Amino acid sequence: MPSTHVPVGEDQAQHLELVQDLARGFNKKYGAFFPLPAPLLTSMKKVKSLRDPSAKMSKSDPDKLATVRITDSPEEIVQKFRKAVTDFTSEVTYEPASRAGVANMVAIHSAVTGLPVAEVVRRSAGIDTARYKLVVADAVIEKFAPIKSEIEKLKLDREHLEKVLQVGSAKAKDIAYPVCQEVKKLVGFL
């Protein structure tokens, strides 16, 4: 069954547009075959850097304090949030245009807890931004803990991982083979 919706971050939407263009071109020349995949964006379309809230968080950022990784230790996560750029106003608000750093903390907090931004701000009333950074760090640590635990468990079972890769590869080939055969027929290679 072909994919019609693809989960992507906002910064990856251009890649999906390329796939759509390719599918449109193929379909125009050989008949309707490929679906045009639509993006599935989360409510938090782009995670901002902890050190520069005007830029997106990136694993290639040379500033190691700018990016939180699932595999970071709780101590590393706390250090990164402690050093996160905010401002000198103590109150926690969500004003992306004028308080980008604090808005970034609120957006991250909202994303990892599933709470609406307004609720995160309401629950943070009376907390200064320095303490709030630690609240957000704790929420991130809590969200990442089961994922990190599963990663560590899987890394210890290399045999299982290799089996998963083999089974997945075989399944992908089984799904892709008839599609490739049909494409070859449509373009005249078979």
UniProtKB/TrEMBL annotation:
Q: Which GO terms describe its cellular component?
A: mitochondrial matrix
Some GO term, biological process aspect, for this entry: which one?
mitochondrial tryptophanyl-tRNA aminoacylation
Write down the Pfam families for this protein, in alphabetical order: tRNA-synt_1b
| A GO MF label | tryptophan-tRNA ligase activity
Q: What class of enzyme is it?
A: ligase
What's in the keyword line of the UniProt record? Aminoacyl-tRNA synthetase, ATP-binding, Ligase, Nucleotide-binding, Protein biosynthesis
Q: Where in the cell is it found?
A: Mitochondrion
Mainly localized where? Answer: mitochondrion
Is Cell membrane one of the keywords UniProt gives this record? no
- Its EC number is 6.1.1.2
| Family according to the record | Belongs to the class-I aminoacyl-tRNA synthetase family.
Annotated protein name in UniProt: tryptophan--tRNA ligase
Species this protein is from: Pteropus vampyrus
Q: Which gene encodes it?
A: LOC105297849
